[in-house]
Design brief:
2 helices
Length: about 110
């Protein structure tokens, strides 16, 4: 019974100090993106002609990159006002929304 008393005191001491070690959390508000992902843009597999017919002439057409072999087909990029389209040969492989401009220092956060 003599070894039980120190154990009881240890357990009691640990239980009494537990509130001192509680975790503290803070809510973090993450603003919504300035440009929603609902912007209509070309989808994978669309042909260049379909993209031109639907969205018109791009603001910029960049020259193809690659194309030295069948393992590396030419990748072309067309830049529109709100998105950029990437083509492999003449088919869309991806289209991405443009990023919103970063907020200037001192601007209030977007709501």
């Amino acid at each position: 019974m003599s070894t039980l008393a120190p154990r009881c005191l240890l357990v009691a001491a640990v239980c009494l100090t537990m509130p001192a070690f509680t975790a503290v959390a803070q809510d973090l508000a993450v603003p919504a993106p300035a440009q929603a992902a609902t912007t209509e843009r070309p989808t994978r597999g669309m042909h260049m002609d379909t993209v031109l017919a639907r969205w018109g002439e791009p603001a910029e057409r960049l020259a193809p990159v690659g194309g030295g072999s069948t393992a590396q087909p030419p990748i072309t990029r067309w830049v529109y006002a709100n998105f950029t389209v990437y083509f492999e040969n003449s088919l869309v492989i991806s289209s991405v929304n443009k990023r919103a401009a970063p907020a200037a220092a001192g601007d209030p956060p977007a709501q």
